[in-house]
Amino acid sequence: MAAGGSDGAKAAGRPYDLVVFGASGFTGQFVVEEVARTAADGELRGGLRWAVAGRSRQKLQAVLERAAERLGKAAPGAEVGVLLCDVSDAASLAAMARQTRLVLSCVGPYRFLGEPVVEACVENGANCIDISGEPQFLEGMYLKYNQKAAEKGVYVVGSCGFDSIPADMGVLYTRDKLKGTLTAVESFLKVKSGPEGACIHDGTWKSAVYGLADQDNLRKLRKKIGYAPVPVVGAKLRRRGFVFYSPEFKEYCIPFMGSDVSVVKRSQRYLHTDLQETPVQYGAYVNIGGLGSVIKLMLAGILFVLLVKFSFGRKLLTKYPEFFSAGRFTKKGPTQKQMDGTSFTMTFFGEGYSEGQDPQNGKPNVKICTEVKGPEPGYVATPIAMVQAGVSLLEDTACLPKQGGVYSPGAVFSKTKLIDRLNKRGVEFSVISKAEV
């Protein structure tokens, strides 16, 4: 049995089920807290043996103490391991990977820091999950490591945070709840913040700056991979303009700039080619509010696009995130109060064909609306999504794809209990309405 399988890894003498790498980073500390909460709930058969990993023992210890305090415990349990390793030291990463069945990789921007972790995991038989929203990193890892991961029986699953579990699993949930054949879905994201407002740590901002600057290389990378085109089944989903008014929400919307569309497309391609399932077309949008918000966003967007093209512009953007994002991205990240007051709703509008109808003929005749709701996306929902993806990988081994590889969440988790697990943790999937047209 491969190291990814439960018995194989334990027999191979791996002391840990899961290691959080980059545990003392901004997002890492919240992931640690979520792992501690999950371990305390005793959901895993035989308990969860876990460790934290990073460069400084002092910082790792502090993160464990903070997590214990937040869970109402006097001190972190002695059962949590502390591993010292550095992303620039391959031997230390290999030593970490050899001790665990799964690494939760929390070090970004992934385009600069992610690959050594993936390589160490693949070479040393540990599964790997990350929360990257960077298509170039995700697809680059697929090109370089998919074959090797398959041979080793290792699962590498990217974008297991807010990017892109709600979108990817939301499309699958919508498909499973439609009686018939789902052929197209559009999602609309709305983030609500309390009186304190909301903001995001500047690590995400850096990823966006470098990602946009590198669009040309992403095209080249996709050419190299040579993806087979995904067939369009049913009525073709029309692309909307850059800004449009949504009568459903009575707000203006723009295309969602994150990795959701590319991740969902990869999942749909896998489900179509490997499992012969009908592929679903997908468009992702975000609600931005009234006309004032549109104007502000357009001006900020134009400035961003101009600066990203030049290295001095990128330096300015990364040095002063707060100024260039009108306070939305900060080097400190959100306060606890801001996080407590923030939540998200992703609404999915799907269309398709009722049972017995041929999707290749005529117009779609059924509609469905579903929703994924959850707490603050970046540092509450993301750790929940990442940790529950990890639990599904460790616990639902019989439901995973037959061979290892570099996967998107929908491809690897479509048959697991991930959605049930997320529902129990406050990232809730529900059907709002269904109708025959």
UniProtKB/TrEMBL annotation:
It comes from the Eukaryota. Pfam families: Sacchrp_dh_NADP (PF03435). InterPro entries: NAD(P)-bd_dom_sf (IPR036291), Saccharopine_DH-like_oxidrdct (IPR051276), Sacchrp_dh_NADP-bd (IPR005097). Residues 19-157 form the Saccharopine dehydrogenase NADP binding domain. The keyword Ligase does not apply. The chain crosses the membrane at residues 282-308. GO terms for biological process: glycolipid biosynthetic process. Keywords: Membrane, Transmembrane, Transmembrane helix. This is Saccharopine dehydrogenase-like oxidoreductase. Belongs to the saccharopine dehydrogenase family. GO terms for cellular component: lipid droplet; mitochondrion; plasma membrane.
